[in-house]
Amino acid sequence: MSYEFHLPDIGEGVIEGEVVSWLVAEGDAVALDQPMVEIMTDKATVEIPSPRAGQIRQIRFKVGQICPVGDVLVVIDEPSSSKTFSSSGFDLGRVPTQPSILMPPPSTPAVAPPAGTSDSNSRVLATPATRKLARTLGVPLDKVMPTGSHGRVTNEDVQRYAEGLSSTSPGLLSAPTPADAMARVHIVAPQVESVRLPAVESARPPVSPALEERVPFRGLRKRIADNMTRSKFTATHFTYVEEMDVTELVALRARARAKAAERGLKLTFLPFIIKAVVSALKKWPSLNASLDETTQEIVLKKYYHIGLAAQGPNGLMVTVLRDADQRSLFDIAAELERLGADAQAGRSKREDLVGSTFSISSLGKLGGVLATPIINFPEVGILGVHKIAEKPAVYNGEICIRSLMNLSISLDHRLVDGWDGAMFLQEVKTLLEDPTLMFMEMR
Amino acid sequence: MSLEDSPADAPENTGGAALNPKNSAFNYFEGSPEEKALGLFSIVGAEGSFSEEDVQRIPRELALRIYDGMLTVRVVDRRMMALQRQGRISFYGEALGQEAAVVGSAAALNAEDWLVPALREAGAGLYHGLPLAKYLAQIFGNAADVTKGRQMPCHPCDRDTNYVVMSSVVSTQIMHAVGIAMGMKLQGHSGRMCIGYMGDGGTSEPDFHTALNFAGVMQPPVVLVCQNNQWAISTPGSSQTASQTIAVKGLGYGVESLRADGNDALAVYEVTRYAAEKARRGDGPTFIELLTYRVSAHSSSDDPSRYRDESITLEWRERRDPLQRMLGFLTAQGWLDVAGAAAREVALEEKVRELIQAQEGVPMPSLESLFDDVFEAPTWLLDEQRESLLAEDRS
Prior knowledge:
The complex is a heterodimer.
Chain A: E1 2-6, E2 16-22, E3 29-30, E4 35-40, E5 45-49, E6 54-59, E7 66-68, E8 72-77, H1 84-87, E9 125-126, H2 128-137, E10 152-153, H3 155-167, H4 170-174, H5 178-187, H6 191-196, H7 219-234, E11 237-245, H8 247-262, H9 270-283, E12 289-292, E13 297-300, E14 306-312, E15 315-321, H10 329-345, E16 358-362, E17 381-385, E18 389-395, E19 398-412, H11 418-433
Helix pairs in contact in A: 2-3, 9-10, 9-11
Chain B: H1 33-38, H2 52-55, H3 60-85, H4 99-106, E1 114-116, H5 122-128, H6 132-140, H7 172-186, E2 194-199, H8 206-218, E3 222-228, E4 231-232, E5 235-236, H9 237-240, E6 256-261, H10 265-281, E7 286-291, H11 310-319, H12 322-333, H13 338-360, H14 380-391
Parallel strand pairs in B: 1-2, 2-3, 3-7, 6-7
Antiparallel strand pairs in B: 4-5
């Protein structure tokens, strides 16, 4: 006999768990209460002991996969002589698939009764006062079209029905009307949605499922959301934008590109920007920092790992160029290529993804004019790089066509004052406008 | 009497209380109020050392009963945590590492005494007479549960043994304990007392102040026990209070305050017995701090490795384990050997598994029981709701 183990709610109100490791493999014999699998939820990482003795027949979720609470995690074959399945009285139907303690399950039925069937059993939402009124007026509550929030029948609904009752033939009322059906559809609208909708809007029919697609909010998308939310609600962002004339840099890069090509390298503007940023960070150390909230200390970092925000195959990724201060421009270009290729292929190592001290968000050719980048928390600064475009500009007292670029920087105002931020960006601008200056500080 | 007045060679039993030898742990009780509230009473030390004279007053039967009580807590906790991970119960809170504080204090109670737990004292209830089957029924929330599955698991109660349900709301129960004891006093002292528990976190609540103040003023037969396990979920003792000890807080309310090693079951028993007997005599309340450590997570929903240094936990788990210490004492006395202890554990585990299997087989409370106990006689509205609920299609 095979036994399906459904992932239980191992915390209070946990909805899913990630498989951290399997302590048994398919085909293994497993003893009663033998540790079977480690599951990580948003509350705790716990070891689940086997509820049955037998043989592991099938593992349904591999390491790293997310198993929703209530789904079958593993199937265990029990020896046929075993009678534990029925005798233990342990009914899988009891495994709660809804948060059971903090949030009572919706009190409305999960499916709408088909139109035209007897609806005397369908549950009607109404306050005791409304029920009393209905009782007094002799109104059958389940026949009243509800207009209250969450599909609740109100006193007014009952009164309206009672007034209608005296002027309409009873025969018409016993058949469900389209209005009835609509009201019922509304009752079964998802609980979360009806909670958010103000009472006035709740009478509106819900959008047809064909017009909406519901995508599970989890995995990388969820992690991005969590990180962005934490950053935005913790760091007090301010953004500052500066325009710079990079005509000389464009020329320099054009010359250097040929040299790079000899080495099989693709030289973009990014290595130059990284070098300028590192030089400026050395001058303004409060931007290469983080706040250790547990010890209430500002951590000023003496190493320069530059985080590079880019669109990965599944969404935003930040790869990390380590020790940018100790690398040559070509070296940086090579490392950027490797980081990008590894990220695209999904083979980034852990150190390629963590430990940055300051980040750069580059949209490349798309570029835009300005942005309000969100800090890669707990860092204190992020630089947004915009496209280089030829524009009319005043140069040496004359209007001529120059290559211009904007940089947007977002900083955590808790640690960095506007002055520091402006001076930092000014330093970057100086170096990028006259790139030969950059070499003075290079190692 | 001070220590200097009682030389070691003084004759014993000179009329009233026995004079303790100079090195006796019991001299703790002769200290000043401050010495008692700041000191630490201990009979069997963390290394297993004890004085022969001190343990002469501990009967063999009692020591074995306390050990069995502690073992029961450990075995039941272990089983229930496994059941929780397997989805067979929804929640559990274990008392791992606190068995001595839980059981040693309950061992000082008489059958007619009342017990008001905080949250980790189900083992005290079991020792006091709460049947294990009743406790398990409450955890499963089945039809045999006297509270009909309406309470969170681990919140048992038992009218027969004066074990009051815990509320989960931190510290409300301290006032209940004092109130129950005030009731006992109003009814005329009948040699009964009430013990009320709290955690270290509970002492930061306003209810702690109110309860201690009433205890000091009204002098009811109450013993208030703080299991200082040093963690209030994720709040460490160092962030909980600036007070030198928790016990010393009681002095401000005029309540005698004692402090004992909570992992030494015999010390816990003796300190609670001192306070319980005093209460039964009508000599007023006592506040006791039992110093221990929450080796387990706060509950099955908690992961302490996310907020504390678990190498410290390991130290308490391996070197200060209360069961090991008690077993060391029992074997040193020749009252139990390791093979005997193992046999007791196996037999107990077998019994616990059987009781679990039986309770797991009990069906859930009936759906219509939802409507019971709201009014003495149900109203038409409840009748109507019950009928409508029962008429629903549940296929």
